[in-house]
Amino acid sequence: LMLLIYFCGRPYHLHFKRFTINKNLMKKLLLLLSIISLSLVSCNNEETLDTATLQTETPASYDNDPTIIQLKGLNENLMSVHQESRGFWSFLKKICTIAYADAKGAFSGFGIGSMFGPAGSWIGAGVVGVGASINKGIEVFSANLSPLTQIVTRHDVEAAYALAKSSNIIYNPTVLGNRVNINIPRKYSKAIDLGKTHNMALHNYFTQDLSNVDIYNVLSEDEVEIIHSNSFTYNYDSYMKSHESYDLDFAIANDFHKADRIVKLFFELYNSYPENMDDVNYIINEYIKVIESDKSISDVEKQSIYVAFAVTAYSSDYWDYKLEKLQYDSSVETNQ
Question: Coil, strand or helix: which one is 173?
Answer without folding.
Answer: helix
